[in-house]
Amino acid sequence: MLNKYALNLEGMLDSAVQWGNEAQGLIKGYADFAVQEHQENLAYNEILTNPDVLSDYTLKYFGPEGPYPVYENEQQLETKGYPTAPVSQEPANGINTSATQAPSNFPAPPQAAAPQQPENFWGSFSETMTRDPQNAWKVLNQVQPNTVQNKLFVME
User: Fold this and answer.
1) How far is the first Cα of the chain from the last one, in angstroms, to the nearest whole number?
2) Where would I find the H helices in 107-144?
3) How many angstroms separate the CA atoms of 156 and 151, rounded?
4) Are 129 and 136 in contact (CB under 8 A)?
5) Residue 101, Ramachandran bin (φ over 0: left; ψ between -120 and 50: alpha; else beta)
6) In the prediction, which pLDDT does 34 show?
7) What angle, rounded to 10 degrees, do the helices at 51-62 and 2-49 form?
8) What are the angstrom distances between the C-alpha of 32 and each of 25, 27, 92, 143?
9) Average pLDDT per 10 consecutive residues for the chain, totaling 156 residues
10) Where are the domains of the chain?
11) Is 84 in a helix, a strand, or coil?
């Protein structure tokens, strides 16, 4: 009887040691992952907050050896700057009409619809979200600001 108790106790101790070793391996894996993620976050922070590092990263990323090079051939690579359209001559009076006049080839912006009652607005917004979610922002642009504020206040 005492021998059976010792065997059971030894089996429980062995399983506890095995569980502890597995837990130690998992914790070490999580710690390594956390250190790796912290280093990656520090690198992202450095890239996003230091303009020199961001510039270097962008030039390498879009450079000839990067994944998205912007140069089509070696001649473009040797050309300094980006190709631009030729500059037109300014009129004799010295006023640049291209900057002072609105271009006529752009369509007119859409007109906002008449404001709706809040009850009708949320019903039509819900309907638009189910029917055409990519254009739901147009419905939100047509509403008075206090309608959205009241909805957020009620939700809080």
Assistant:
1) 66
2) 118-131, 136-141
3) 9
4) yes
5) beta
6) 93
7) 90
8) 10, 9, 70, 50
9) 87 94 94 93 88 86 73 64 54 52 60 57 77 77 73 58
10) 1-49, 51-80, 113-155
11) coil
